[in-house]
Amino acid sequence: MAAPLAFFGLFFAYPVAAIVGRGLKTDTGWQFGRIGEVLSRPDIAGVLWFTTWQAFASTALTLLIALPGAYAFARLEFPGKQLLRAVVTVPFVLPTVVVGTAFLALLGRGGMLEELAGVRLDTTVWAILLAHVFFNYAVVVRTVGGLWAQLDPRQEEAARVLGAGRFAAWRRVTLPALAPAVAAASLMVFLFTFSSFGVVLILGGPAYSTLEVEVYRQTAQLLDLPTAAVLTMVQFAAIGAILALHAWTVRRRETALRLVDPGRTAHRPHGGAQHTLLGGVLLTIGLLIVAPLAVLVERSFDTPGGYGLGFYRALQDAGAGGGTFLVPPLEAIWNSLQYALAATAVALVVGGLAAAALTRRGGRFVRGFDAMLMLPLGVSAVTVGFGFLITLDEPPLDLRTSWILVPLAQALVGVPFVVRTMLPVLRAVDGRLREAAAVLGASPLRAWREVDLPLVRRALLIAAGFAFAVSLGEFGATVFIARPDRPTLPVAVARLLGRAGELNYGQAMALSTILMLVCAVSLLALERLRPDKTSGEF
Amino acid sequence: MSTTRKIAGAALAAALGVTTLSACGGGDAKDKVAGTSDAPKSKTVTLVSHDSFNVTESVLKEFEQQSGYTVKVLKSGDAGAALNQEILTKGSPRGDVFFGVDNTLLSRALDNGIFTPYEAKGLADVKPEYVLDSEHRVTPVDTGDICVNYDKAYFADKKIAPPQTLDDLTKPEYKNLLVVENAATSSPGLGFMLASVGKYGEEGWQDYWSKLKANGVEVVDGWEQAYNERFSGSAGGKKAKGDRPLVVSYASSPPVEVLYGEPQPAEAPTGVATGTCFRQTEFAGLLKGAKNEEGGKALVDFLISKKFQEDMPLQMFVNPVTKDAALPELFTKHGVVVDKPENVAPETIAKNREQWVKAWTALVVK
Known about the structure:
The complex is a heterodimer of chains A (538) and B (366).
Chain A: H1 2-24, E1 25-26, E2 29-30, H2 33-39, H3 42-75, H4 81-89, H5 96-107, H6 112-117, H7 125-148, H8 153-161, H9 166-194, H10 198-204, H11 211-221, H12 225-249, H13 262-265, H14 271-301, E3 302-303, E4 306-307, H15 310-317, H16 329-360, H17 364-374, H18 381-391, H19 405-428, H20 431-439, H21 444-473, H22 476-480, H23 489-497, H24 502-528
Antiparallel strand pairs in A: 1-2, 3-4
Chain B: H1 2-23, H2 28-36, E1 44-49, H3 57-67, E2 70-75, H4 79-88, E3 97-102, H5 106-111, E4 115-116, E5 139-151, H6 152-158, E6 178-181, H7 187-214, E7 218-220, H8 223-230, H9 235-239, E8 246-250, H10 253-259, E9 270-287, H11 293-303, H12 306-316, E10 319-320, H13 329-334, H14 346-365
Parallel strand pairs in B: 1-2, 1-3, 6-7, 6-8
Antiparallel strand pairs in B: 3-9, 4-9, 5-8, 5-9, 5-10
């Protein structure tokens, strides 16, 4: 527990506290008067209100649309399942400006929706909500589905044998077991949408603003640190309230569950209901996730001389232009992968240790720690980035120009995923199994390896996938941290989009397509690492 | 509990693995050592800039060979964010020279005292109108104009003349044609707002925007969206079925459309309304507390050397500030000369910026 505490203290709490303190403290002392001043501004109240309700609406909509998907991925066997699971995670890595383009092509003026149904959704709040579902679908599918796949279906079957109806059995047996994972997923989606930045900027138009957008504007553009500090504290308070609410609703202990190998719980769909459900899920994924991605792929091939590989070839020549502006795509991919691998390793170590500590211990302090680990999801990247600048500036910790700062910042966002994905599974492990192993003479390490690891390994891989995808696509923190000239794929895409010219636009689309591929292939490779069929036996 | 400790052991091993990995991660580890040791003369000079900084590699190499310094470039965010980071790290900068503060932000930089005065070698070659700081805390490096661009094909099809001035944009024949960027979040957006302040004065610019709004101006958040999605004259805009033939962009955008056309067109598909422009000048300065002051001075000299000045146009799509730097053919053939750009004094901008942006937001966005 000491290691994750130190990590969070040094790379999160200290920098954020320092930048907030810088904003509120002047030569004449603390300026707490600023808090009331900022809070009484009507525009800030409006921003807070919009931020909150759109986050609630986005979370509800995401759960509604993605829970059937979680079931289908957990319990049904269908061709292309692994590939599709990787595909739904792809949105995570895409720069929002790229996704915004794709969404506008579907929902905006002259888009598919207008042609088919005569409806335009751009600059309405619906575009924001749907984009949030697009981004967060994988959170629900992976977090809830991961646990669902390991629940022993025989418990539900037993309830039905004992006379419970299908729905009653699900509600009394499966739902309580899933509750912690559903709560975790909702919480993450809520925090992501509460601190939504790019989606709101691009799809909402300038009329909509979230707290995160305001913090960015005040810090990065206006350098009004006092206002930014107050807004950051408001954001903290709001997130704190949500985390408290979360802790209160899931206060009841997760019970030990009978976890089994996921390979044994999934089966081919049978019966009309299951086929309809699977069809519905596939249709939803097709329309909501695959279609926008397909638009980008289509544009990457759509050269002036007809469809072809022109833009990809141009990327190949990028290094030959002689400027420092572009990097050859292979180099950008390699940069991205290095950062993402390092960030994933850090997130797994820190998050894994934290999850283990949280499982073993109880009490108020630990619950507070639990909540603290979630905070990075709701704190603005610009706050953390600027905090790094003013705190990590002295040897031995003058990391401001070191490349390691990028994966460290990215890991901050990855850790909550690791903790949230692993915690339900770790808590569900029946302690008696461990005791039994100990009684039979196993050392604690052996007991952990033989009992916990096989059950946790799957959750670990799911968590790793998340942490990896988050770091691969991370843009905000990466941009605010000075780095040696080693742009990642999202940074390279942003640079290309920042220039006029057909070739630049086409190359941005081609590079985005490559980013999607790298993400999907990496996640598929991770899935392959899944424990084989026999390792679930004990 | 002991189990936890075992996991901690394994984790520590993994963490060490990460450290080893990072040691293999390229030359940065070496740089760090060089940076922390107090060598009397460092061989590395660090340039901090925004994301748009760009230079031809061979030009940079030549400077490195002649001066004996190795140049490290740190890019961090857009121009505003990059400057604010320098202000925050004042006294303990990450590099030796900062490049990329423009006239809209100049006063903020000077008031915060982040630069050491240095009169660059070759300053005599710089056109005097760009030297805005008599104490030489900053040196002008490039200049460019933010202007309304138009889609030539649209206006040819409709047989109407494209607009030329700010006044034109409020005329009925240009109703619902213009898309601009949010002045609160975008640098061209801010520049265009300042063009209106320059033209109509602190009293009259809001009135102008009321007319623009009545004439159907559309506001989007950033340049990427305005240019690549809404503007009908760009490649992205065509694919995204953009229907606005007027957009706020740069005077250098048409040459860029030619350079990155596929294949390169004989004539630029877009044009510039030369009476709608705001002139931006970008400066560089030696950072106070620079570890390598000598190298920093050499780097500032390099930025206004003929070699760099002539390289800039095709790398960053801006104009040189020195008298004798020749423009590339692409600029002379497809670019425009903006004779009377609008301008507002840096001090006036610094004093009113926030209040203007607020008024603009209330007037145009809400």
